[in-house]
Amino acid sequence: MSMIFSSTAQSCKGYAFSSNKIFRACNDLPYLNSYLHWNYDSSSNKLQIAYRHTGITSSRWVSWAINPTSTGMAGSQALVAFQQTDGTMRAYTSPISSYQTSLQEGKLSFDVSDLSATLASKEIIIFATIGTFKQEHYC
What we know:
The chain is mainly beta and 139 residues long. It contains one helix and eight strands.
């Protein structure tokens, strides 16, 4: 017997953003029900990203983080988005210093601009432009 699940049949390739944004590269993150889309501009050393998390039901928040200095959760730099009580979306940055994080708002070790989020069709998308890592934070 063969079964195909819809979540494994989806792919980030060919996804059309309602905002008409175009991303040249993407990765499927099937274990997270997510997709990461990006454009890298080598002249400015900036990364434009869209992190899509699908299948949103009762929970109305998502977070995507990277750890530029290690492989664990502590030291990660997170982008967080959630639906506020008035229905609008709020996006902010949160440095994670321990495993007991509450995702408090704070400045990251790299520049983040154009941070926003959308919620539609059971999917939250976080948009951001990430600048170069500030090496002085790690010396």
